[in-house]
Amino acid sequence: GQMNLTSPQNVQVDIINTNFTLRWTWNSENDFSVTFSAQYQRLFEDYEEAVIEETDWKEMSGCQNVTVMECDFSSAMTDYLYSYNVRVRAEQGEEKSPWSTTLFFTPYLKAKIGPPGVHLKSINGVVEINISSPEENLSRRMWTSDIIFTYNAVFWENSSNAEPKSRTLERRNKIYDLAPRTTYCLKVQAHITSERKVGSFSPVYCIKTTDKARILAYPINLEIHALNMKFLLTWDNLYDQNVSFTVQQLIGYLMSLPEDYSNNWTTVSGCENITITQCDVSSDIYHLGTYFFRVKAMSGYNKSHWSNEIKVDPCVVNEIGPPNLTVSSSEDSLRIQLIPPGESENKSMSEFYDLSYRVLYWKNSSDAEEKIKEEQQLLFIISDLTPLTWYCLKVQAFSPVYKKNGHFSDAICIKTLNGKDSPLSIFMAFVIAMFASLILASFCIFSIYHISRRIRYTFFPSCKPPSNIEDRFGSGQPFSIPYLSTSEEPTENCCIIESIVIEETNQTDIKEYKHSKQNSRDSGNYSNDDDTSGAKVLEEMLEQEAA
Amino acid sequence: MINRSLLPFSLMLLLSSETSCLDCNRIHVLQSKMNSKSLEHLEKMGGPFPFQCLNERSAFKATDILKVRLAQQENAKAAIQQILQELFQIFSKNLTHAAWDGTSIKEFQNGIHQQIEKLEVCLSAEVEKETTYPGNESLLHTSLKLRRYFQTVRHFLKEKQYSRCAWEIIRLEVSRCFLVLNILTKRI
């Protein structure tokens, strides 16, 4: 008999990394002779997201004659950044249902992030966590950049009821401060912050820590101290015997790459086989970028493991030293000239930071309060001070973007000058004023003389033009005066709005009009003939007033 | 649903220690510093554009990065981070034929990587504050356009088998990306 196949419903696409699954529903009784087939077409968009080209419908490989209501069509997808249309139909023998509604999608926008890979290792009480990206070592990748992901781990101690903790992880991590012979568990998810995409969690991984190594202990408590971009690495001395140390450095970004970086550690020059527990590592730090450092202890043939790795972000760990300053005083102000911190050592901190300066100043008496002034310039003046008074001040540099305050300079004290005018200065002022007024007066006299000559020459010329020239202009036309224009200046044809208003508002209350006329005159509201907008404004005003 | 999946994400942010030592409202200061330093490195790593590659220059037909309609103000940080991530990825592989100064490449990469991390701190803080997703659509579309552009860059290098001239052409193209970065930096 006749049997009309219905179209599949609720067509949807699920994408995890580069795995594409098509799903749909079909509202009919189970009939195993019914199969489903899907088609797709590619779309190409321009900058404005408008579709500019579409291909013909093609059969979707992986989704032909399937008997279940889902299929994997990953192999049909070639470009994840442009869009596709897909549709499905049911088929039974020769009979075919109409196509389902077309589903439009852009793989990259729809794709979800799969779980990352987690690899745990437990060595000598230290747990190593290595994370691989959700698509590590795959040739087809949805997320093309290795460093697009940040990893978030949730971890807990297996046997306790403590709340799970959460923290971001690097790709490579060494966790040192764990209890021995304890089982820890964790799960990790990847996310792309800039696109607000959060991936799914990995399975839970657990690992039991081992006892600490019985060999020479590795150095602990690595710290970096820096002043004006001079970096000193320090660590604790745990050792009774004679021990020497070696420091290594790794350029920061290598830690985020999937490749093995263990051969990229380099020994810091001057920090090899040293016997003290500190070393200057400045030579290996360039201020842009991050670095890792690690230390190893050696005693004879005994070697420790490498210490934990300390991450150094130069501008963050560095402390800004005090600026150099010179101060001079007048009667009511102090003039301050600064040299940025580090400039004397040829490493000006203004190269690395967005420096501003904070001055603390106070009267050098017991009950004086401190005042603060902030400046971006290297030369500035503190004014409104009392004459003949001792003032003290100190200055620090600070970087707003790093929220970092530098060290204060030593306090400098200076006395403001005498405010009263001495007889000598009065005399000097008098002489200068005399001299200045003399120059001014002579200048005035000279210019009056000059101008009057010009006027006389223009309006009352002493010499008449030769008679033949006068003839040419005709007797009727007087000889024109050169500095006066005779042609009429072009003027705009203007009128006062009032006249229009009268026409348009004749019907309205005349009293109201008079009131507004006053307004219009006050505001100088004039307009060209053909412009009635002014009138409209007035009209509105009238209506408002009437209301 | 989205909120629930973000819960562990925000928990993580509470524990993130780096947030405290950076004023994200002033991150443009660091960004413009990085832009100019990176351009310097780019210049230094290979010197002037070589003559023998002039003929091949026309071979690169990318959608023009300058024509990509740029992110709106609220998404400028995200767009900058995406561009930096793509640049970092491009310069991290197959550089043997480029014959460039190794130190300059490392410093270029390290500077970009550090800035990506700083932007990450600020972006995470922003995500934490968001309850809804303003401009999420436009954010993803900007991202899509940028990724399409960088896909053409990667395809070009692959097609030219990472030859010296292909790399030189891309080095030139990347300096144009920094123009876009400068524009975006002003919008942060």
UniProtKB/TrEMBL annotation, chain A:
Assigned GO CC terms: plasma membrane; receptor complex
Pfam families according to UniProt: Interfer-bind, Tissue_fac
Superkingdom to which the source organism belongs: Eukaryota
One GO-annotated biological process of the protein: defense response to virus
Region Disordered, annotated ranges: 511-547
Matching SMART domains: FN3
TM segment ranges: 424-449
A molecular function (GO) term: JAK pathway signal transduction adaptor activity
Domain annotation Fibronectin type-III: ranges: 7-112, 319-419
This protein's UniProt keywords: Membrane, Transmembrane, Transmembrane helix
PANTHER family according to UniProt: INTERFERON ALPHA_BETA RECEPTOR 1, INTERFERON/INTERLEUKIN RECEPTOR
Protein name: Interferon alpha and beta receptor subunit 1
Gene: IFNAR1
UniProtKB/TrEMBL annotation, chain B:
Superkingdom, natural source: Eukaryota
Family: Belongs to the alpha/beta interferon family.
Role, per record: Has antiviral activities.
UniProt GO molecular function: cytokine activity; cytokine receptor binding
SUPFAM superfamilies reported for this sequence: 4-helical cytokines
One Pfam family from the record: Interferon
Name the record gives this protein: Interferon beta-like
Cell location: Secreted
Source organism: Pelodiscus sinensis (Chinese softshell turtle)
Key words of the record: Antiviral defense, Cytokine, Disulfide bond, Secreted, Signal
Signal peptide, first to last residue: 1-21
Primary localization: secreted
Cellular component per GO, a single term: extracellular space
Keyword Signal included in the entry's annotation: yes
Gene Ontology process terms (BP): defense response to virus; immune response
